[in-house]
Amino acid sequence: MKQYQLNYLILPDLNEEDAKSLQERINSFVVENQGTLDKIFDIAKKRIDQRVKKQDVAYLASLDFHFLPEKIMDLEKKLKSEEKIIRYAILNKKAQKPLEAKRRRPILKAAEETAKATEKPKKVEIKEIEKKLEEILGE
Predict the structure, then answer these.
(1) How crowded is residue 94: how many other Cβ atoms within 10 Å of its Cβ?
(2) Which residue has the higher pLDDT, 3 or 107?
(3) Which of 3-17, 20-34, 45-59, 85-99 shows the lowest per-residue confidence on average (mean pLDDT)?
(4) Residues forming a β-bridge with 138
(5) Cα–chain-centroid distance for residue 72?
(6) Domain match, 73 and 32 both
(7) pTM for the whole thing?
């Protein structure tokens, strides 16, 4: 099963109870088709930036769920058959690792590295440089 997110807009002509019953029908369709619901977001009436089917306002509903990829087409047919849904988007969500699982450098190590980088190099005597040159040149 893959994890998905479904976002859809419902006509604002409905009252809130009817919009919630439509949301329940969609949720029950997912469960009936061997899906599992992860998170159901509350329906909210929102102003839409871009008009959809001559509507400036619509109910926004969202749902996170696990579903078989083969059944997504059935879900799309169900969403298209609902006359009160004016637009929908099914997003494929990837599993994210928790933040604790990521490796991070300890703060002390980072501070030590910056301190080493800012240290001034030691001064070298001219006699030492001359000795090295003689060794290299083979004199």
Answers:
(1) 6
(2) 3
(3) 85-99
(4) none
(5) 20
(6) yes
(7) 0.64
Angle at alpha carbon of residue 98, lines to 95 and 41, rounded to 5°: 60
Is position 128 within any domain?
yes
Tokens of 29: 């369709």
Name the CA radius of gyration of the chain, rounded.
Answer: 31
**Do residue 86 and residue 35 come from a single domain?**
yes
Neighbours of 98 (CB within 10 A): 6
Contact partners, residue 19, CB within 8 Å, separation at least 6: 10, 43, 59, 61, 84
Q: What are the tokens at 31? A: 């469960």
- Tens digits of per-residue pLDDT, 46-69? 888 888 788 889 999 999 999 999
Task: Report the alpha-carbon distance of residue 5 to residue 3 in Å, rounded.
Answer: 7
| 117 and 66 both lie in a single domain | no
Q: What CATH number should be reported for the domain holding residue 8? A: 3.30.70.60
Token pair, residue 16, equals 């809130």
Per-residue pLDDT at 109 exceeds 80 = no
